[in-house]
Queue: 2 jobs
Job 1
Amino acid sequence: MHYPLGTIILYARNMQATADFYCRHFGFTTTGEAHEGLIELFAPAGGAGILVHQAAKSVKLGQVGVKLSFHVEDITAFIRQAGENGLEFGPLHQANGYSFANAKDPDQNAISISSRAFRHH
């Protein structure tokens, strides 16, 4: 059997700001409208979609239990473009044949960009 990951649910204090963040910086598309308490984000080039859900006041956001990692071939160019659009990444790290960098979304959820999927074996 095959069970692909299809959707990630993110809790947000400001649903629209979070939806805008992922559309602006990672190319997701959306109508921006909340249906059934969710804003749905689509990945036009494939991959898991994101549902942005209103966080209850009691929900503690920004924990490191989950990190969204985006496949980016040219990390340096992406970091430069993201900076021009207001998204700052931490230091660029070199790993075993790939590089990655980390940042936070508006709700302090951990995100990273990684070229690991493009490394040559």
Job 2
Amino acid sequence: MSYEALPDGELAAVVTYLEMRSPPDHTVPPSPLSLQRIEVPQPEHYRELFRLIGAPWLWFSRLTIDDAHLAAIIQHPRVELDSVIDESGREVGMLELDFREPHECELSFIGLVPELSGKGHGRWLLAEAVRRAWREGVERVHVHTCSLDHPAALAAYRRAGFTPFKRAVERFPDPRLLGILPKDCAPQIPLLGTPA
């Protein structure tokens, strides 16, 4: 076993890649939540939703690209973006499916606000995502998660029928120190270093 020291201001995560080669034999559980398609996603609204869902887990990748590049991804005709809506009409989650690769669907981003955690809503959202991903012509559905994500994420993907097939170590500057995310988000991940 060996350890590799990280400089202050840098983070590392173990990324696990998972895939599904055939649709699972699962039903979608009931939920008071619903999905609402965002037909022409705008970068500013997308970033708000992305932060709302992802800041507790240090999601930052889509926050660092310019409007034109982000719009080219999220407005692509083979990318589908839905808001998760609660009973009061509030956005409480997101689902992004990417069909740009022929015969494949990537669950690019999927998540709910932290206050919905542990109430079964994630099981509904993931089952609904898998149901929507498997459509005519799709032969593989895939997703990846990392060790900085929600502690139940990997188990949830496996329970939904995904099989791990590869791991990688990802290193990156802490987005809180770069000013991309607030310094107080993701308190479960120690903040080491000083802001840029």
